[in-house]
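Before surveying the methods themselves, let us examine one representative protein, written as a sequence plus integers encoding its fold.
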Amino acid sequence: MLANQHLLISNSDNTSKNCLNRGIDSPIFMPKNQLEKEELKVRVLKLKHELGGENYSEGIKFLADKYLNKVLDTIDEYRY
């Protein structure tokens, strides 16, 4: 519901909502705990699995899968 509220902001109010610090009504938040390397990999692998069930063309799925693999490779570059 909060995400839809941001779509209804008029242009005059839009300037105050364009920065990362959007105030308390924003659905965007920063987690306060650490994200482990393996947990992040699991999340990306879930996205890869979900991609297989989507109704997009094979070309789009291939490209998305390619870039998710690049994300996994980047995660593997870190020690923890």
About this structure: Residues 32-80 form one domain. The longest helix spans residues 58-76. The chain has two domains: 1-30, 32-80. The chain has four helices and no strands.
